[in-house]
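User: I've been going back and forth on whether these two constructs are worth ordering. Before I decide, could you fold them both?

Assistant: Sure. I'll take them in the order you sent them. The first construct and its structure tokens:
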Amino acid sequence: MTGLKQDLLFAGIKNCVVALDPRDGTEVWRNKLKGSTFVSVLWDGEALFATSQGEVYRLDPSSGAVMWHNPLKGLGMGLVCLASTQGPVSSTPYETTAAQLQRQAAAATAATA
């Protein structure tokens, strides 16, 4: 689904994005971004984005390499909040749960009939 060879946990801290192995916390990679302020990260199910000092980066989730960078010229160096229209490839957790409950109810009804 994601194309990643392993599960990763992404953390933004100071001026870095760090990828960790969620099973044991081992650092997989680290990328130092411009600035020395708060770093925000967004994983949208397909792409990894990071912000630092008013700028936006798209990072390769496997290696941390910068795929593109936008300095958002003229907007200052404040915190950047991200959102994405990219949704999960599969249903949302609620829809998945609802669909599972419907299938379970149908199976239970069929079993008692």
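The second construct, handled the same way:
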Amino acid sequence: MILASGCVELMSPQEMTQLVADYGAFTDELKQAGAYVTSQGLRPTTAATTVRVQYGEALTMDGPFAETKEQLGGIYWIDVNDLDEALAWAAKVPSAKFGSIEVRPIWG
């Protein structure tokens, strides 16, 4: 699984349009290679709700769990042979140019 993060709030409308186009091309490349499983963008952390259970009671709080400069922007679930192949794809994620990309295997 590829987790993409970055700080898109600082982008101009033109830069955002280009980023969306770059992600479309990246997704098409994954699909053509047969590595694509699914992907999904996430709303900003301002739309988050954090849940904690204390003494058996669920407590909710609006907003993110932690304040950070980068936030998880979305995920790509890919099917590849090994970590090296996953890392090669991660290096092609458009937001790798200004953010960070985390690669994680799934359980199972």
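Notes on the second construct follow. Strands lie at 2-6, 36-41, 49-54, 57-62, 71-78, 100-103. The radius of gyration is 16 Å.
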